[in-house]
Amino acid sequence: MGSSPLKRFTAAAVTLGAGLAIAACGGGEDSAEEDAAAGQEATTGASAGGKAMVNYTSFPDYLDPALSYTQEGWNTLSTVYTPLVTFRRAEGAEGAELVPALVQEMPEVSEDGKTYSMTLRERLEYSDGKPVKASDFERSLQRALILQSGGSSFYFDIEGAEEYFEGGKAKGDIRGITADDETGEITIKLKTPNGAFPYILSMPFASVVPGDTPFENQTKNPPPGVGPYRFQNVRQGRGYELVRNENFPEIEGLPEPKLDRIEVEIKKNQRRQVQDVIQNKVDWIVDPPPADQLREVKAEYSDRYEEYVTNSTYYYFMNHRVAPFDNPEVRKAVNYAIDKRALARLFGGLLEPGCNFLPPGMQGYEKIDPCPYGDPNEAPQVDKARQMIKDAGVAGDEVFVYGNGEDPSRPTTEYLADVLNQIGFEAKPRIIEASVYFQTVGNQKTNAQIGFANWFQDFPHPQNFMFLVDPASIQNTNNPNLGNVEDPEIRKALKEASQQPIEEAANRYAEVDRQLIAEAHVAPYGHRKLTNFVSERVDFENCTVTHPVYDLDLTQLCVTE
Questions:
Q1: Phi-psi region of 403 (alpha: psi -120 to 50; beta: other; left: phi over 0)
Q2: 51, 280, 337, 517: most buried by Cβ count inside 10 Å?
Q3: What is the maximum alpha-carbon separation in the chain?
Q4: For the segment 117-148, what is each residue's pLDDT rounded down to a tens digit?
Q5: For the chain, give me the number of helices (H) and strands (E)?
Q6: pLDDT the model gives residue 40
Q7: Which helix (H) or strand (E) holds 6?
Q8: CATH no. for residue 188?
Q9: Which helix (H) or strand (E) holds 560?
Q10: What is the domain range of residue 100?
């Protein structure tokens, strides 16, 4: 997710011991599990059941899995809906592991990488008791396409999916999907091999809902799902409740929920949110404390506060088609001149300075050390950069630095303009309305020279970052490759890697990452940190699991009486 300031979507670098977190406060059916749970309860003082209160600053964009594409949405929907495959409920790298969810085993992939075969688990039921059918998967994906979901294009590799999307008729067919309701077998055929496709299947857009769900936005009355919780008392714009789903089956890697009920309340006043957590009126807040409260929280409540690095990258794009950044020496000068420590301060400390384009929690990440432009945690080489600009003959050139009016875009854009002035340019910020910023800089007619960019993962696969610098991604409008990176070696490497399983392609992605930095195709400066701040009722050590995709896993949250 590109433009959302808190989009996640993330393999967290902080690990609190996922095994303990998953075992904590849980219930089991056999005596051994009950004894383990009882022992854990005695240790932590927390018990299964009960309810908790959480605050979001904004109501999710949608409570319909076919449509939601925000942090708040995915944090909630991951507890109510389940795709065919999903992520293990754990922290760090373990949480980025795919496991079979509604299917018995991970999909069997044909030798040519284009056919995925799987079988539904037996006797699956939705939260309302209706049986889950194999054909429900195709109907669920059809809903997403007909509703023109923001995730639609991810599924265009399926034979017939793009044509179905363009046709816009609900009664049509996606020819690449076949389903047998008698046997539970599902087969998906792709046009070309895609090593990231199992991750695409795990996205909420592909969550399975009943086949008779209307092809309309269901936020006011979300459909039943197969998840640990179900929706109750939805008050659009104000809040809703998550209630334990008694029909949730036993699935390895997806433990039972700890709480009976979670109340979600929308509270736009973030300062009030923080005070309510301090006073134990609220058990968890999704957004970091405001900068002016952060110091107090860190100093006085460190036993229930943590920061974690998300799978995200903040960087400056430099347009290879527009002077002066068509010159690689100029792009390198920019990288030498950026003070990543200063940028971290602009984020209130909630930025981990870095040299890589891929974030630390991502498969394929290999720390670039030494960084060719100096240690990200040390002073920049401004004098060297100034001399490079002079040698390139572009000193005094006019440069417009693009950004939008929201934090942290505006301050980081203004910072870059100051840096460019220090090394010899005549630079000015050009601030664009946030709602149209990426469309503006992604239009070739704008000829944006340099500017703010960021990306939060959709799923933990390097392909979800590398398309931002893939020459094959360049287009005239809505261009994701903002810098028009056109390196033919990178294009070839990414094409080959995209057709391989991640286990085989990880080293290739790491090589591309190093090449991006060595050639100064982009100027990355860090990875966003998010936070967990909880009430005293929450057993912080054993009942908070920061998932790499969904942030705090609400299914594993538990509280004391």
A1: beta
A2: 337
A3: 77
A4: 999 999 999 999 999 999 999 999 999 999 99
A5: 17, 20
A6: 39
A7: none
A8: 3.40.190.10
A9: none
A10: 18-263+534-556
